[in-house]
């Protein structure tokens, strides 16, 4: 199993940022999700985030909402998420689950952490779980040997950043803007300042997500962050493709461009 620590150490040794790709489980289909993620890994993604489809995705913009809706319509459940993680982890990429808290709470925190570890997952990103309410999840994750990732935002105060990073073990997710996911014409200029502010409180890698959609933008973010997170740009290409095979080809082309970007 490839750990996050191994990924970021290797990226640092290569004098580059890590490339993190996001896709929901069950999208574009059950089975097709693993194939799509494998295409990203082959094209240069170091880490894969598997999204757990949820009916109320507060942080997600229209592109990811569309993908998640299709996944839920496909009947995707937590058991399918775990099978997806297992398939993606077999590629050799460090594999996380990005999930809102309610499904984990309903499933059982200890059970979720244990099942994720058994599937080869290395951790979770929990965007709506606050530090004040995270103790149970952090304890369950530590017991299962998986990492926890929480988010900081441009609006975060110094005290808030400190509280968030103290809950993180794998890396810190720096949201580049106040808003929902989605590729944009440019990456918010606040992202670089947020990374600097976050590094003042932790030695963990700091990865930037929200808004990255091109190789040039990946290069821009890689100049100051330890990792570049891309989701909507990949999903958009799958949604626009005539079939799953064409979708995989399209995201592989973009991932290669991104992988070159983080190495510039």
Q: What is this entry, summarized?
A:
This protein has 264 residues and is of the alpha/beta class. The chain has helices at 4-13, 32-43, 62-73, 78-89, 101-107, 109-118, 135-144, 158-165, 190-199, 215-222, 232-240, 244-261, and strands spanning 18-24, 47-51, 94-98, 123-125, 147-149, 151-152, 172-175, 206-209, 227-230.
Please characterize this protein's 3D structure.
- The chain contains twelve helices and nine strands.
- The chain has helices at residues 4-13, 32-43, 62-73, 78-89, 101-107, 109-118, 135-144, 158-165, 190-199, 215-222, 232-240, 244-261; strands at residues 18-24, 47-51, 94-98, 123-125, 147-149, 151-152, 172-175, 206-209, 227-230.
- Helix 2 runs parallel beside helix 4 (78-89) and helix 6 (109-118) runs parallel beside helix 7 (135-144).
- It is globular.
Question: Key features?
Answer:
264 residues; alpha/beta; nine-stranded parallel sheet; 12 helices; globular
Physical arrangement of strands within the biggest beta sheet: 5-4-3-2-1-9-8-7-6
Helicity range of the residues?
40-55%
Along the chain, the helix and strand elements come as HEHEHHEHHEHEEHEHEHEHH
Q: Estimate what percentage of residues fall within beta strands.
A: 5-15%
Number of helices in the DSSP assignment: 12
Distance between the termini: 28 Å
Strand segment tally = 9
On the 0-100 scale, what is the average pLDDT?
A: 93
């Amino acid at each position: 199993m490839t750990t996050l620590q191994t990924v970021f150490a290797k990226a640092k040794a290569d004098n580059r940022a890590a490339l993190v790709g996001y896709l929901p489980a069950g999208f574009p289909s059950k089975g097709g999700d693993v194939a799509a993620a494998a295409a990203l890994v082959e094209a240069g993604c170091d880490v894969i985030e598997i999204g757990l489809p949820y009916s109320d995705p507060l942080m997600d913009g229209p592109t990811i909402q569309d993908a998640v809706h299709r996944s839920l319509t496909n009947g995707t459940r937590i058991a399918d998420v775990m099978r997806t993680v297992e398939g993606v982890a077999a590629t050799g990429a460090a594999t996380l689950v990005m999930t809102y808290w309610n499904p984990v709470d309903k499933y059982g925190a200890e059970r979720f952490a244990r099942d994720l570890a058994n599937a080869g997952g290395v951790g979770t990103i929990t965007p709506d779980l606050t530090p004040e309410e995270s103790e149970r999840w952090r304890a369950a994750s530590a017991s299962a040997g998986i990492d926890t990732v929480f988010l900081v935002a441009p609006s975060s105060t110094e005290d808030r950043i400190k509280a968030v990073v103290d809950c993180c073990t794998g890396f810190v997710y720096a949201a580049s803007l106040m808003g929902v996911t989605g590729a944009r014409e440019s990456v918010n200029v606040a992202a670089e300042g947020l990374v600097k502010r976050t590094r003042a409180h932790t030695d963990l890698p700091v990865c930037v997500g929200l808004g990255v959609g091109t190789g040039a933008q990946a290069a821009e973010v890689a100049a100051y962050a330890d990792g570049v997170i891309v989701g909507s740009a990949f999903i958009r290409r799958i949604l626009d493709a005539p079939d799953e095979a064409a979708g995989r080809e399209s995201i592989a082309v973009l991932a290669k461009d991104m992988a070159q970007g983080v190495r510039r």
